Amino acid sequence: MAQAGRPRKTAIDEAIMAAVAELVVERGYPRVTIDDVVARAGTNKPAFYRRFRDLADVVPHLLAARHGLDDDIDTGSLVGDLVEAQRRQHLLFTDPVVTRGFAGWAAEMDASPARAEPFIAGYLAPRRAQTHVFLERAIGRGEIAGGVDAGWIAALLTGPLLMHAVMPGLPPADARLAIGTVHAALDALGYTADRAAVASLAASEEK
Q1: Which of these, 169, 198, 164, 158, lies nearest to 78 by C-alpha position?
Q2: How far is the C-alpha of 195 from the C-alpha of 193, rounded, in Å?
Q3: Which string of b and e fits 174-203 if b means at least 16 CB within 10 Å?
Q4: Is residue 200 a contact partner of residue 111, using CB atoms and an 8 Å limit?
Q5: What's the DSSP call for residue 68?
Q6: Contact 80, 195 (CB under 8 A)
Q7: Within 10 Å of residue 146's Cβ, how many Cβ atoms?
């Protein structure tokens, strides 16, 4: 991690993340080493270790840089918020960096809880927390009743896309699957108002 009082050099951070992304796509996460990364990034191991504890520590920064944390989503409606969140998740779970890297990341984090902590705290938890934000706003607007389980809704939205991203033999997640997850979440929430905007998720595959 960066040393106190020492400004981080953004260009080096970006070069390291770009190198990790390229190498994961080329080789798969388990075959990427820090030596590979610094060589590809045009830097050195001391510079790497001033920024990151290990390769797993790069993952949340890389994912946030490529796909954000959803904390900027506020469309004014529950349907709009969920549609935009799932548009981004569709892009996330069809990103070659994720489809080539997730299984390796997960195995490494499962083997070492300390390595999992940056991913959980820096990426997974903030993204899941946004589902709670969406639902609380919807309750405040009177779109849905209170007492909802935001964790369950987050899992309902993410689970099918994740499964198609990492499970051998399944096709890539497509817009139809993303549309289905939004409808399933709205059904679970007892949402009965207009859902026409959900169909706009089909545009994700056209970009």
Answers
A1: 198
A2: 6
A3: bbebbbebbeebbeebebeeebeebeebee
A4: no
A5: -
A6: no
A7: 9
Tokens at 149, concatenated: 């389980």
Distance CA 156, CA 107 (A): 22
Two structure tokens written together for 204: 């994700």
What would you report as the CA-atom Rg of the chain, rounded to the nearest whole angstrom?
A: 19
Lookup: tokens for 118 = 């940056």
Q: pTM of the full predicted structure? A: 0.89
Instruction: Show the domains of the chain with their CATH numbers.
Output: 10-52 (1.10.10.60), 69-206 (1.10.357.10)
In the numeric block, the tokens 């949402």 are attached to: 191
Provide the pLDDT confidence category of residue 13 given band limits of 50, 70 and 90.
very high
**Residues 137, 77, 146, 88: is their CA dihedral positive or negative?**
negative
CB atoms within 10 A of CB 121: 11
Q: Rounded to an integer, what distance in angstroms lies between the CA atom of residue 204 and that of residue 24?
A: 24
Give the chain's mean pLDDT: 93
Residue type, 56: A
Q: Phi and psi dihedrals of 137, rounded to 5? A: -65, -40
Tens of pLDDT, residue by residue over 91-145, are 999 999 999 999 999 999 899 988 899 999 999 999 999 999 999 999 999 999 9
Task: Please give the structure tokens belonging to residue 120.
Answer: 């959980």
> CA 163, 164, 170 angle in degrees (round to 5)?
120
| Structure-token match 């969406």, residue found | 134
